[in-house]
């Protein structure tokens, strides 16, 4: 019945250190070797996810920047949606971000992670891939070829940004939280669910054959698209309230996805968790 597994990374497939547990790696490789196909669906940058994929040792489809980019298993970009240049130039302005300087502004270009200041604490999220940022003057950027704008800050500083975006752009943008301190902005026809439907169409596969795992608000339509959605026990309470009928499984910090996959696919070979 199950032919495709679509999974988020942070808070889902990755552990609390934002890395892959060896038990998870072994389980995913075992399924891939048996012919199960995978989609990694995340807000992370493609270059970052490619590094994580290499640690997994499989060749999945990569849905990145919350669906603004889709790469085939051979790394060919097969789907791309950018924010307009004008929107990007506006999204980095102090009138949107706030002039207090507390919010970190990031841009995701095709091959680069651009940031408005040095923030070495963020590199802990990218230990498996080694992906690093480039510091730029945001207001000098032309806005070209940007898949995503990411604001990182205290939730109390992000909420006014979300309100300003709603007021000024309405439904012209897709605005979502990947973590309570991460507000992500893409163009309106982007989402993980749309990207998953694109991959399903390419594979000529029905959603009823797809299992999906997620934990946060940017996973809503990923879970709504898959025929067999599952939510992490550590999921955002707002996601639990939004999708109350989606079954909850284990925690990301206990390799919950791997353990549930072993149940779904009736894997009985011995793999030692560590």
Automatic annotation (TrEMBL):
Q: Does the keyword Hydrolase apply?
A: yes
- Return one GO MF term: metal ion binding
Q: Which SUPFAM superfamilies match?
A: HAD-like
Question: Is Hydrolase set as a keyword in this record?
Answer: yes
The record's keywords, sorted A to Z, are: Hydrolase, Magnesium, Metal-binding
Q: Which domain of life is it from?
A: Bacteria
Q: Which cofactor does it need?
A: Mg(2+)
InterPro entries tied to this protein: Cof (IPR000150), HAD-like_sf (IPR036412), HAD-SF_hydro_IIB (IPR006379), HAD_sf (IPR023214)
Which Pfam families does the entry mention?
Hydrolase_3
In which family does this protein belong, per the annotation? Belongs to the HAD-like hydrolase superfamily. Cof family.
Q: What is this protein called?
A: Cof-type HAD-IIB family hydrolase
């Amino acid at each position: 019945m199950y032919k495709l597994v679509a999974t988020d990374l942070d808070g889902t497939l990755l552990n609390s250190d934002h890395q892959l547990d060896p038990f998870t790696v072994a389980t995913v490789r075992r399924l891939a070797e048996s012919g199960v196909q995978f989609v990694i669906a995340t807000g992370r940058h493609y270059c970052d996810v490619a590094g994580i994929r290499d640690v997994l040792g499989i060749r999945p489809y990569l849905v990145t920047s919350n669906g603004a980019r889709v790469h085939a298993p051979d790394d060919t970009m097969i789907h791309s949606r950018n924010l307009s240049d004008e929107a990007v130039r506006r999204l980095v302005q102090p009138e949107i971000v706030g002039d207090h300087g507390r919010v970190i502004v990031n841009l995701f270009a095709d091959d680069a992670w651009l940031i408005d200041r040095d923030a070495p604490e963020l590199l802990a999220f990218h230990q498996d891939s080694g992906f690093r940022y480039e510091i730029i003057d945001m207001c000098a950027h032309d806005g070209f070829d940007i898949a995503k704008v990411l604001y990182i800050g205290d939730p109390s500083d992000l909420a006014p940004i979300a309100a300003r975006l709603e007021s000024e752009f309405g439904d012209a943008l897709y605005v979502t939280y990947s973590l309570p301190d991460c507000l992500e902005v893409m163009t309106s026809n982007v989402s993980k669910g749309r990207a998953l439907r694109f991959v399903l169409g390419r594979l000529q596969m029905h959603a009823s054959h797809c299992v999906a795992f997620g934990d946060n608000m940017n996973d809503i339509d990923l879970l709504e698209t898959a025929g067999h959605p599952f939510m992490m026990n550590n999921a955002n309470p707002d996601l639990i309230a939004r999708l109350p009928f989606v079954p909850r499984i284990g925690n990301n910090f206990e390799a919950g996805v791997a353990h549930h996959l072993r149940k779904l696919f009736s894997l009985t070979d011995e793999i030692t968790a560590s």
